[in-house]
Design a protein that fits this description.
Elements lengths: L1 E3 L5 E3 L12 H35 L3 H20 L2 H15 L3 H35 L5 H14 L3 H16 L4 H24 L3 H30 L8 H33 L6 H38 L3 H29 L11 H16 L1 H16 L3 H22 L5 H26 L13
Antiparallel strand pairs: 1-2
Helix pairs in contact: 1-2, 1-7, 1-10, 1-11, 2-5, 3-4, 3-6, 3-9, 3-10, 4-5, 4-6, 4-8, 4-9, 5-8, 6-8, 7-8, 9-14, 9-15, 10-11, 10-12, 10-13, 11-12, 11-13, 12-15, 13-15, 14-15
Length: about 475
């Protein structure tokens, strides 16, 4: 097994030949899952909580400022969201080298991912600043809201490189089986973000620009912290710090499939929202508001399930890197059990709160009433969602990006017409959510389960060369 070194970077004990010992393997796997998943969950939850705090600080400036922040946030989150491969892909590749017992190569792979983050971040920063007016104009807001959005974005895009470096370094540390350091940095960095935002927005009276400045400063310091941890480990194990063209090119090539997967899944969610806007000729605002509350709650529950998927990425990559196919199979089976169990719990909780939770979000009785059946449908789909997230993590950890890309496109092809048709049915909003649970999540579950039962993804060794 692995023990922590002074820098929280794990190393392998000499003589270890199997990652999950035959002695009580279920308990051993459960310990590993919890060790990685619990800090990952807390880090995932910390981010939206602090985003809500940012909105609260800016919201007291006025409605136009809050609307401007909303537009800017959507743009920034889209850019960063499309680059999530910097975390996922790096986790898998680093974990493989770690499982193979080559910590130096693992860190070198991580450094390549960090350089890729710098390159992409530089391009996104320049492009984002240059295109800020056009990006904001695409939302067709009023001039006052657009002005606030542009003021925020012009500064916030300066934090793109730090944000992407945070993704890449987090991926490195997850691959090294360390999810605690990213948690500490997330909490400390976002706490600093809140303090700086409050000070600059109100203390120095900088308005929405102060919020952007505070966020960028917090992002720079958080990224510097994570980079320092990785660089110190790299120096300790004599891993190169300079950019390696071949390594960066390989990381970029592997990222293409994960980008396609991410785009396809995001397109599914956008199609679902569009379908909701087509439900009936009346009460469109009620449908959209209800859908927004439901998708917010669904996304929050996804954080818990995604934390287990992050553990699956790290553990699967490590097991395959060590050549332990049997251990990988056992790990996958246990992960699926965790997926079912966590999904059932999430579903029961969502169903239990469905009659009352609406009061936290709206005073509109129509929205509250409509929210109940929507949440019950979402609750029924949570067990399948739990398995989907876990298997997604397993296959990402295995480096099976090409299959995940094709699967994402197939799911989009199936879900888009189903969601649009559901919108034409009686009780259209509920029908759209049935389509989301049955077609969107169901199709993903079928494809991922089929893949997991096969052997093609079980590629062992430090690299994915076939």
């Amino acid at each position: 097994m692995y023990i922590a070194s002074g820098s929280s970077v794990p190393r392998r004990d000499a003589g270890t030949t199997e990652l999950f010992p035959r002695l009580d393997p279920v308990r051993a796997v459960d310990r590993e899952i919890l060790r990685l998943a619990v800090p990952a969950f807390l880090a995932l939850v910390a981010e939206p909580m602090f985003l809500l705090s940012d909105a609260a600080i800016v919201g007291h400036l006025g409605t136009p400022e809050l609307a401007g922040l909303g537009v800017a946030a959507v743009i920034l989150q889209t850019v960063v969201g499309l680059c999530v491969f910097l975390a996922y892909g790096t986790t898998a590749s680093v974990a493989r080298h770690l499982g193979a017992g080559d910590l130096r190569a693992a860190l070198a792979q991580g450094i390549d991912g960090m350089w890729l983050a710098v390159i992409i971040g530089a391009i996104a920063t320049v492009g984002g600043i240059a295109l800020t007016p056009s990006l904001v104009a695409a939302f067709d807001t009023g001039s006052e809201v657009a002005q606030h959005a542009e003021s925020y974005l012009a500064i916030a895009f300066l934090g793109t490189i730090p944000l992407l470096l945070m993704l890449a370094t987090t991926g490195v540390l997850r691959g090294l089986q360390d999810t605690r350091t990213p948690l500490v940095v997330a909490v400390a960095g976002n706490g600093l973000n809140i303090a700086l935002n409050f000070l600059l927005v109100y203390g120095f009276d900088l308005g929405i620009a102060g919020s952007a400045i505070g966020s960028v400063v917090a992002q720079v310091l958080s990224a510097a912290w994570l980079v320092l941890v990785v660089v110190r480990a790299a120096r300790r194990h004599d891993a190169p710090l300079s950019p390696d063209r071949a390594g960066i090119k390989a990381a970029a090539h592997a990222a293409v499939a994960l980008v396609i997967r991410t785009l396809a899944l995001r397109a599914c969610l956008l199609v679902g929202t569009y379908a909701v806007t087509r439900v009936g000729a009346e009460a469109t605002d009620v449908n959209v508001a209800t859908h927004q509350i439901a998708i917010t709650l669904w996304s929050f529950l996804a954080f818990a399930l995604d934390a287990i998927a992050i553990a699956a990425q790290a553990l699967t990559g490590r097991a395959l890197g060590s050549g332990d196919v049997e251990g990988t199979r056992r790990l996958t089976r246990r992960m699926i059990q965790w997926g079912w169990g966590s999904g059932i719990v999430a579903g029961l909780v969502l169903a239990a709160v469905s009659p009352v939770i609406g009061i936290l979000f709206t005073s509109d009785p129509e929205v509250r009433e409509l929210l109940v059946p929507v949440l019950l449908v979402a609750a029924l789909g949570q067990p399948v969602a739990g398995v989907v997230f876990v298997l997604d993590g397993v296959l990402i950890g295995a480096g099976d990006g090409a299959f995940l890309a094709w699967a994402g496109l197939a799911v989009l092809a199936a879900y888009a017409p189903a969601a649009l048709f559901a919108a034409t049915l009686p009780h259209g909003l509920v029908a759209v959510w049935v389509a989301m649970s049955v077609v969107f999540m169901g199709a993903r579950g079928l494809l991922l389960s089929w893949r997991a039962r096969g052997d093609r993804w079980l590629v062992t060794g430090a690299t994915l060369a076939r």
